[in-house]
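Lab meeting minutes (informal)
Scribe: AK
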Amino acid sequence: MRILVQLYEGEPVTIAFPAAVELTIMSTPPGLHEHETTTFKTATLENGMEVLLPQFIKEGDMVRIEVASGKYLERVRRGTHKA
């Protein structure tokens, strides 16, 4: 991932993080109801962070997470990754 860093006299003064990142689900329990979208479960991401996400998300799925809040935004379908 590329992150914009502005330097002043060789020292970083500003770091521009992306609004969202795409991460893979490393572990999560099976969903109670596969198509349920109103209840959430806990999952561990590839970076070790834990998030709440809908029941239909499975291990190995890729999800988009909002950087500022750490909240789940959406599941990333294969072939639709954003740069």
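Next up, CB showed the second protein from the same session:
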Amino acid sequence: MSNTVIHKSNTRGYKHLGWLESYHTFSFAKYNNPERMNFGVLRVLNDDSVYLGQGFNNHPHANMEIVSIPLEGDLEHKDSMGNIAVIREGDIQVMSAGTGITHSEYNKNKDRVVKFLQIWIIPNKENVTPRYDQISIRDFSQENKFFQILSPSKEDQGVWIHQNAWFSLGYFSEGNSDEYQMNKAENGVYVFLIEGDAIVNGEQLLKRDGIGIWDVNSVKVEATADARVLLMEVPMKTININ
């Protein structure tokens, strides 16, 4: 029998710093909810908006897999590894913080807010050499079907991380559906509805709602309005650091 947890968009943590507006699905910064610390190794799912000419000053991370998915606008990235890049809607960025990195992100647009998802995954290896990667997903995106954007393998489609996790995106027009097959039976899957309305394994979700499901072999998503859906399959146990 499957297990589920539902996080409606209006139950998320929230902060507004003038330059940043952020919604937290899981405990983060001053939002501390003991019942919402993580979903397996999925530790952070932040829905961020960065205002014109503003951004995150240089700050450190270690032993975390950090994934950024831009939704609107252009975000400039700089880090201690020497990378200077701009990530845009249709891209995915990943950093393995490992032994330690510092980085900054800024909205260089003059006419619009940058919106992006900031996701942290607890790795299965500590103190790895830090690394950075960024790709465009435009060339392999599909309509009305999930397509993979992240995995544990350097050889697979999308970016890779130090964890047995798989991310997929789906762009669905109203009335279409797809069934996602789990890669590992011991994993769970967290579905985040970026846009639109959808039924996920029988549960109705609206824009920015999330649902975690585990002890299942597959997950079915049916769009009840045009929808953009992020699906994150992750290990449910967080103790396999080595």
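CB comment: The mean pLDDT is 94.
No objections, moving on.
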